[in-house]
């Protein structure tokens, strides 16, 4: 431990001031520096005791959740976080039917209007062109947090996965190796956000995907710009992936989930490809016997039959449901830091 001039009892107000991201939009996870991410996680640790209680840091503040796509975990965790912080929530979960978007209102206008009611907005949208709208709004709008845009960015999910790894592995990110495995890296916005955050913090990243469905250029450009420590593997069998986990010293395997929704004609083919990403409890136990490491498995959820062995649920490897337990504290931290206390 290195002593500093500000050493003393933990103070949540000073911690939020130290983080220093008040008033900022969050579009990509690498919008945040390594120091800002570290302080965000330190704030979350301080708020964990209140994830089932209340700490009125945002009394009188209002969160608006505007979701143009279905959501359970992202919307509920942000709304719960705001209530736990003493604030209030207004929500629109089906704007193309029940808001003025159904009358043709532009997203630009809708957000400028919502900003008059709320102190912070969490927005989910199926089109990543929304990023241009947010750039155009700039400081004419309250802070907008991405709850997922198109196929490329979902920073609040990436932050949660980072925080789960941070708490579960218990070592600096620079001493972590994480695998992100899915047949379709091109549409794995949660996995790509996790990867960007890991890269920012100096972790080693192993991508495992399918030829022709690799990481989008916008994400690779960001990784290369950060001089990230990453490698890509394509078309591995499940046996080869298990060998890779053992040989590379991988601590944490992340499964971004099925990118192809129900009704999509490509869904059946996707699920066939999932067979080579079907991690089993038996396979993880073999890795543990060989290496002495308990490899954590997480998933963005919701999950489908055939994505991985549900027997993992009751094992020490399971981190996907445990992550939900951390989601409220992490999002309390995000809201408190972006709104300011």
| Helical content (DSSP H or I, runs of 4+) | 40-55%
What's the level 1 CATH class of the largest domain? Answer: Alpha Beta
Indicate how many domains the architecture comprises: 2
Rg measurement, Å: 20 Å
Count of separate DSSP helical elements: 13
Arithmetic mean pLDDT: 94
Strand order of the largest sheet: 7-6-5-8-9
State the oligomer: single chain
SSE class: alpha/beta
How many strand units?
A: 9
Enter the CATH topology name of the largest domain: Rossmann fold
Distance between the termini: 28 Å
Proportion of beta-strand residues: 5-15%
Low-pLDDT stretches are none
Q: What is the second-level CATH architecture of the largest domain?
A: 3-Layer(aba) Sandwich
Element order, helices and strands? Answer: HHEHEHHEHEHEHEHEHEHHEH
Tell me what you see in this structure:
- The protein is of the alpha/beta class and 341 residues long.
- The chain folds into 2 domains: 12-153 and 327-339, 3-Layer(aba) Sandwich (Rossmann fold), CATH 3.40.50; 155-325, Rossmann fold, CATH 3.40.50.
- Helices cover 41% and strands 14% of the residues.
- A 5-stranded parallel β-sheet has the order 7-6-5-8-9, sandwiched between helices.
- Strand 5 (177-181), helix 8 (189-201) and strand 6 form a beta-alpha-beta unit.
- Helix 1 (12-19) packs antiparallel against helix 2 (34-47), helix 7 crosses helix 8 and helix 7 crosses helix 13.
- The chain is globular, with a radius of gyration of 20 Å.
């Amino acid at each position: 431990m290195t002593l500093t001039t500000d050493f003393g009892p933990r103070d949540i107000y000073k911690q939020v001031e130290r983080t220093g991201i008040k008033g900022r939009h969050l579009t990509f996870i690498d919008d945040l520096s390594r120091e800002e991410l570290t302080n965000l996680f330190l704030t979350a640790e301080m708020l964990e005791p209140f994830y089932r209680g209340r700490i009125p840091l945002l009394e009188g503040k209002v969160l608006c959740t505007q979701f143009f796509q279905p959501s359970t975990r992202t919307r509920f965790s942000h709304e719960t976080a705001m209530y736990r912080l003493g604030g209030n929530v207004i929500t629109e979960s089906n704007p193309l039917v029940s808001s003025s978007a159904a009358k043709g209102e532009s997203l630009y206008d809708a957000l400028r209007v919502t900003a008059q009611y709320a102190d912070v907005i969490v927005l989910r949208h199926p089109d990543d062109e929304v990023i241009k709208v947010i750039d155009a709004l700039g400081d004419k709008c309250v802070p907008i947090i991405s709850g997922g845009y198109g196929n490329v960015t979902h920073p609040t999910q990436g932050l949660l996965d980072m925080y789960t790894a941070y708490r579960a592995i218990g070592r600096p990110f620079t001493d972590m190796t994480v695998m992100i495995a899915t047949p379709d890296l091109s549409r794995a916005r949660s996995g790509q956000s996790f990867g960007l955050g890991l890269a920012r913090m100096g972790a080693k990243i192993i991508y495992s995907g399918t030829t022709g469905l690799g990481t989008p250029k916008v994400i690779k450009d960001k990784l290369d710009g950060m001089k990230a420590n990453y490698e890509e593997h394509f078309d591995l069998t499940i046996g080869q992936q298990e060998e890779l986990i053992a040989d590379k010293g991988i601590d944490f395997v992340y499964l971004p989930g099925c990118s192809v929704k129900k009704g999509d004609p490509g869904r059946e083919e996707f699920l066939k490809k999932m067979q080579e990403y079907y991690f089993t409890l038996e396979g993880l136990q073999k890795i543990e016997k060989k290496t002495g490491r308990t490899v954590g498995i997480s998933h963005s959820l919701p999950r489908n039959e055939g994505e991985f062995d549900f027997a993992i649920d009751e094992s020490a490897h399971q981190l996907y449901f445990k992550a939900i337990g951390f989601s409220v504290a992490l999002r309390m931290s995000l809201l408190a830091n972006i709104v300011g206390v």
